[in-house]
Design a protein that fits this description.
ABC2_TM, mainly alpha, ABC-2_transporter
């Protein structure tokens, strides 16, 4: 007597599982593509390293920044600019990288082709944002390593400081990624994307306390910069890597970490809403 077994029916993969699987797969693809693009690497990944090196070499001869009247104390030039370079790296990895990249994909027909595949917008977003996270973490880690090993910059030893670094970094990267996706809808073509995006990012860096002492700027410029997220990202990073005495040089005389969290949270929501509302596989005017 023989027995027969009925094969179990193959359960179809759920839509959510498929979305996540495709999204994770896109993260690896997008990351590989990122590191194969020399111009992207130069203007987003390595740019903070270059600027930190330039400022350190150019101004170190003037001595420490924030010294006491007797010449003691303060921090080195490299230590002073490190928080700003970390904040700029987050902005470049998210806003500049994604805005230029997605605008180019719209222009060359990549998005149109992807729209005809099983890839959903959510999986596409997961790939882009995941790539930003991977590259931003690598960039920040290497920047801290260079700061400690090559520039001899003392890093915080207080766990609370590193906890602040973690949430400011997390908020900053996610916010920058969503704003990059949203900004990608502005350029009319891939060729014009860099002309539209890079000046915006560069101006924000100059008015947000990345390259210049924030309180040395005119009050109207400080107020303008306070509207945008980079100012708060840089301020949050300064609270981690600079002595507490430097808080007196902030706009309100304190680190205002609650305002940092609030501002980044608002911009995260704005970026999410605008990016989802404006994203299309095919341009409306195509």
């Amino acid at each position: 007597m023989t027995t027969t077994t009925t094969p179990s029916p193959v359960r179809p993969r759920s839509a959510a599982a498929t979305t996540v699987r495709l999204g994770v797969s896109r993260i690896g693809y997008e990351t590989r593509l990122y590191f194969r693009s020399p111009d992207t690497l130069f203007f987003t990944f390595f740019f903070p390293f270059i600027m930190l090196g330039i400022f350190t070499a150019a101004f170190s001869a003037a001595g420490n920044i924030g010294t006491n009247p007797d010449g003691t104390g303060g921090v080195s030039v490299g230590a002073y600019y490190l928080p700003g370079m970390l904040a700029a790296g987050m902005l470049l990895s998210g806003v500049q990288n994604l805005a230029v990249d997605i605008a180019g994909e719209k222009s060359d027909g990549t998005l149109k082709r992807l729209g005809g595949t099983p890839l959903s917008p959510l999986s596409y977003f997961m790939g882009k944002i995941g790539q930003v996270f991977v590259t931003a973490i690598l960039q920040a880690g290497l920047l801290l390593l260079v700061a400690r090993v090559l520039l001899n910059i003392e890093l915080p030893s207080d766990p609370e400081k590193w906890a602040t670094f973690a949430w400011v970094f997390l908020f900053g990267v996610i916010t920058s990624a969503f704003l990059g996706i949203a900004l990608a809808s502005v350029p009319r073509s891939g060729k014009s994307a860099t002309a539209v995006v890079i000046p915006v990012v560069l101006v924000l860096q100059f008015i947000s306390g990345v390259y210049l002492q924030f309180t040395a700027l005119p009050e109207w410029m400080q107020n303008l910069a306070s509207v945008f997220p980079l100012k708060w990202m840089a301020q949050g990073m300064r609270s981690v890597f600079l002595p507490d005495s430097f808080a007196a040089a902030e706009q309100t005389g304190s680190w205002d970490l609650i305002w940092v969290a609030g501002a980044l949270g608002v911009w995260l929501v704005v970026g999410l809403v605008v990016s989802r509302a404006t994203f299309r596989w095919i341009r409306r005017d195509a």
